[in-house]
Write a structure and sequence with these properties.
Helix content is about 45%, strand content about 25%. By secondary structure, the protein is of the alpha/beta class. It has three domains: about 80 residues, Winged helix-like DNA-binding domain superfamily/Winged helix DNA-binding domain (Arc Repressor Mutant, subunit A, Orthogonal Bundle), CATH 1.10.10; about 100 residues, D-Maltodextrin-Binding Protein, domain 2 (3-Layer(aba) Sandwich), CATH 3.40.190.10; about 100 residues, D-Maltodextrin-Binding Protein, domain 2, CATH 3.40.190. The strands form three sheets. An eight-stranded mixed sheet has the order 4-3-5-12-6-10-8-9, sandwiched between helices. α5 links the parallel β3 and β4.
Length: about 290
Amino acid sequence: MDLRSMTQMVEIARFGHMTRAAESLGVSQPALSAALRKMEEELGTELFHRTGLGVEVTEAGKVFVEHAKVTLRAGERAKEAVRELVGLESGSIKVGAGATATGYLLPAAIHAVRDEYPGLKFSIREAGSLAVAEGVVSGELDLGIVTLPVDHPRGEELMVVHEISDELMLIVPSGHKLDGRKSFRWGDLEGESVIAFEAGSAVRGILDSAALAHGVNLEVVMELRSIEAIVQMVRAGIGVGFVSRFGLEDGEGIRAKDGRLTRTLGVVRRRDRFLSHAAGAFERALLIGDTIKR
């Protein structure tokens, strides 16, 4: 008994007619009849009753066909898994992420994966969490890195396959009253010019909510999307800013003493899709990189 024989029995049941099943399978009707006889002899029972109009599945045949369908689906999944493995040599991964992940998490992970699979190609889309979630839900992206929880109308279709802890840190110009400090209080920012991520972004939402909770009205004088741009503006003395710990060297950045700005980044994919070998290799590289950064 093999997958080919199972496929033949399933097709006979589907058509209820030997000739039409044979045409669908691309074999002769006598050859298909011989395969059926062989299968019935092997099982010791009839799978189909012959009628004047064709064939009819017996009770034993119904049981056999249902189990054959399960086996054939498993066989297809096995072939897909092998194809995906081969795809590591010449396939591609489409990933979406925000500024933090694109600039500071993805490069090391991509380098690690391409070291092992140099033929693998990456397509990276930098966008906000909502746009990334939409890309993953629609199937345009294989994986996405978003700020959790996912605020998307079809968020239940997404699965979080890995979580990464992040913290927003305050950076200040050289010579600022907070320069050299390890922590600050929210009241210290009253009246300060603030360089922030653009309104509507997940990071900006975290910052605004924390300031509001501590009764501080942030005076945002500039909105940017790039961490590096915020860093450069702060260095130029335009104001203070908040960036991810991933964008800073060890020991850099000032932590909020009375209300830390933490968030969780999630690597997400569609819930109804198996994680491909390529995506799995990339996920493992992200996990290793995150562990090192901690």
